[in-house]
Write a structure and sequence with these properties.
The protein has about 160 residues and is mostly helical. β1 and β2 form a beta hairpin. It is globular. The termini are far apart.
Length: about 160
C-alpha cells in the first residue's frame, strides 16, 4: 500500500511508528523515565516538598476521544475522532501525556481556536507529520520542558 506513514489509520498497528521500536529501546526509554522521575522526587523532597503518587489507567480510543471533546468543549464528536486517533497513537491514552500533548499542539499552533467560527481547528496531516517522533512519554515531557528557563528546569 502506497500511503504515507502519517496518513495511515491508527488501527494499522503494523505500520505505526511505535511498532518499529525494539523492546530494548522501549525498556531504555522506560528506565530513563523512571530515573528522571526518581531524580525529580529526590530534588522535591530535598526542598521539603512531599510527593503523592496516583495510579491512573490509560484511556482507550473512545476514552481519548471523550477526553478531547470535553477538554475542547466540542459539540460534534464525529469531528474529533481522527484527532483522537492520532493523539491516542502518540500518547497510548495516558491522560497526563494526552493533556500535555494537546497543550504542545496548541503551543506549536497545530490546533487553534478560530474566534470567527467559534470552534477549534486543526490540520490532522500536519499534526501527524510533525509529531511522528513524539511516541514516547519521556520525549514529550522533555520537548515540553525545553521551553522552560534553566532555573526552572534545574528544580
Amino acid at each position: 500500500e502506497d500511503v504515507p506513514e502519517h496518513r495511515r489509520r491508527s488501527s494499522d498497528s503494523r505500520n505505526s511508528p511505535t511498532s518499529h521500536v525494539s523492546s530494548r529501546q522501549k525498556k531504555c526509554a522506560n528506565e530513563k523515565l523512571i530515573s528522571r522521575i526518581d531524580k525529580w522526587k529526590k530534588k522535591a523532597e530535598s526542598c521539603g516538598l512531599s510527593i503523592t503518587e496516583v495510579a491512573v489507567e490509560n484511556l482507550d480510543l473512545k476514552g481519548t476521544d471523550k477526553f478531547i471533546t470535553n477538554l475542547m468543549s466540542l459539540e460534534d464528536v464525529d469531528d474529533s475522532l481522527p484527532l483522537a486517533e492520532v493523539c491516542h497513537q502518540r500518547t497510548r491514552g495516558n491522560p497526563l501525556f494526552l493533556y500535555n500533548f494537546l497543550h504542545l499542539l496548541w503551543k506549536e499552533k497545530l490546533i487553534d481556536f478560530n474566534m470567527g467560527c467559534h470552534r477549534w481547528e486543526w490540520d490532522l496531516e500536519n499534526i501527524a507529520a510533525r509529531t511522528v517522533v513524539t511516541h514516547n512519554a519521556l520525549e514529550l515531557l522533555l520537548r515540553d520542558f525545553s521551553h522552560l528557563s534553566n532555573e526552572v528546569r534545574s528544580v
